[in-house]
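Posting here for the record, re: zinc ion.
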Amino acid sequence: MKPEPADDSALSACKDKLKNFRIKELKDVLQQLGLSRQGKKQELADRIMARLSDQQDQVSNLNGKHMVAKEKVLKIVDDTYTKLHEPANPVAVSRNQVDSGLSVSPKKKLTESAQVVKVRCPCGNSMANGPMVKCDDPQCNVWQHVGCVIISEKSADNVPTELPASFYCDICRINRADPFWVTVNHPLLPTAVAPSKIADDGSYTVQYLEKTFPLSRANREMLQKAEYDIQVWCILLDDKVPFRIHWPLHSDVQVNGVHLRVVNRQITQQLGANGRDDGPVLTEYCKEGPNKIVLSRSDSRMFSLGVRIAKRRSLQEVLSLVPKEHDGEKFDYALARVRRCVGGGAEADKADSDSDIEVVAQSL
Ligand SMILES: [Zn+2]
Ligand SMILES: [Zn+2]
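Prediction output follows.
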């Protein structure tokens, strides 16, 4: 047994939490640590992380006047995070509890031991109850309820739900959906869009989801800059193409009373395997303070909807993310692959085209 097993994971968990903080939370933490609260957002976060790494080697030397124990820093960040996101504390769940709720064959992600489970599910419940699934993103570590995010056709017949080979939470999926956008923060965290009931005769009822999200002055000021925008997005849970925006059928979005067109296809037409929807930009319709968003739709599938502030990457920045030829595949192969993806390709190639998109998205 190593004496300090949680050091690295505690640090990276802390870093993840800081990413979720607004300037207000960062300043809160800095104030509690007695550090300067001046500077840009990234500088504030870096200052907190620097305080943590400072003490990596000096944990035993806590008697200096201005020395704050690393644990204290972690605890302050933790408490602030809890206040920000979750009414209840993160729930500690032992591996046994996680496994016992699952009626699936053991998979790698279920055999990892989970000390503290960070639950962030579109249903809004932060308790780890029932079967859980963990996001594959190594930086994310979020767990979600299997019943909320994995909808297999079999589950209706009480046949055990099969977990997919790879699973990404909604935030990690939207982060990979468009290389031209980098998520900065989430004024509205992902929220479940419940399925609509479709009657036997095919008639449908329109359902409304109404949410209010706050926009701070700092965020509003950030949005004055050309490269920042606020965007509403929606993804289909359990989408066969994981990294894309996907709106329900008959979608209509209103932001502060203004109607927005969300899809270019017919509202009655399903999104095909090679299609992608867009996330409308809300920048000109949002104001400082509370903003109201209403989604009406009629679709029997489950979706997750959120609002994010994102920074645009230039074409040059996106191109620089593409692996160089000598690090990856030959240009001719890549070109053939992109042609398959874009053009649809022959039947035999189709299975491979989605996973290619996934590989490209993951390398971003
Ligand atoms: Zn849930
Ligand atoms: Zn994730």
